[in-house]
Amino acid sequence: MATAAMQPPVDVKLMNGTASVLFVAFGVLLAAALGGWVLRHPVFSLGGISVLGDTAHTSPAQLRANVAPQLRGSFFTLDLAAARRAFEAVPWVRQAVVRREFPNRLKVVLEEHKAVALWGDEGRMVNSHGEVFEANAGDVEGDDLPTLQGPDEASAPQVLAMWQALGPLFEPLDLAVATLALTGRGSWQATLDTGAVLELGRGEPVEVQARAQRFARTLTQAASRYGRRPEAVVSADLRYADGYALRMRGVGTVDPATAAAKR
């Protein structure tokens, strides 16, 4: 005759459950203690930073002064997003990518602004992406930068694109667009490197560029009628449908017969 399986008493079940809970709790506490020990261990304190990429205008001294005080925590606890923002707050730094390098270093890849123009008269500059940024313009090497201006910073990409489109039109004449301004009413005005002021008027970019192209294509012929070269232009108004008004150095606007009659 089979005997029924003996069931453990309730107090034994309770003891087994309690032991399991205590064992799990002990494991959690042990893991937490081990994790805390790891986080506090000196070997995981930040021991150095490798900086790669564009560093033409960014010196180690600048990084130490501007970034180092903001890097808080160890290799594991450092906030990478906050570190990236700290690097990108340094003048000339457009973008930074920050990564951990086990066991205690950071690897940073910098992209600097590529200055292509000055923005307005406040010492700011425009980079190759059409973004306005602040840095020391005296750090720019090479030729003088053109000056661009618009109603606000949001118009910088539009003004930069227009300047880039106009430049090749005047290169055959050995002229360059030194300044380009867009007014709040949408009117364009350019100044050449000779000081000549060009009123380009309003309209879609293709319309403004078409007027400038017509002017550049015919300027040499128009100037030669008065024995002048294109660099003799003082000002030009391109806002006419079928031509442009032109002022040149040494060329009067009064008819000679009228001037003689007045004498």
Question: In words, what does this structure look like?
Answer:
The structure is a single chain. The protein has 263 residues and is an alpha/beta fold. The chain has two domains: 43-112, membrane protein fhac (Ubiquitin-like (UB roll)); 115-256, Cell division protein FtsQ/DivIB (Rossmann fold). It contains six helices and twelve strands. It has a nine-stranded mixed beta sheet with strand order 6-5-4-7-8-9-10-11-12, covered by helices on one side. A three-stranded mixed beta sheet has the order 1-3-2, with helices on one face. Strand 2 and strand 3 (105-112) form a beta hairpin. The radius of gyration is 35 Å and the shape is elongated. The model is unreliable at 254-263 (pLDDT under 50).
CATH architecture of the largest domain: 3-Layer(aba) Sandwich
Structural class of the secondary structure composition?
A: alpha/beta
Total of domains:
2
User: How many β-strand stretches?
Assistant: 12
The percentage helix is: 25-40%
Strand content: 15-25%
Query: What's the Cα radius of gyration?
Result: 35 Å
- Supply the CATH superfamily name of the largest domain: Cell division protein FtsQ/DivIB
- General form: elongated
**Topology-level CATH name of the largest domain:** Rossmann fold
User: Mind summarizing the main beta sheet?
Assistant: 9 strands, mixed
Strand-and-helix sequence, N→C? HEHHEEEEEEHEEEHEEH
Count of alpha and pi helical runs: 6
Mean pLDDT score: 85
Calculate the terminal CA-CA distance, rounded to whole Å: 150 Å
Q: How do the strands line up in the largest sheet?
A: 6-5-4-7-8-9-10-11-12
Instruction: List low-confidence stretches.
Output: 254-263
What is the name of the CATH class of the largest domain? Alpha Beta
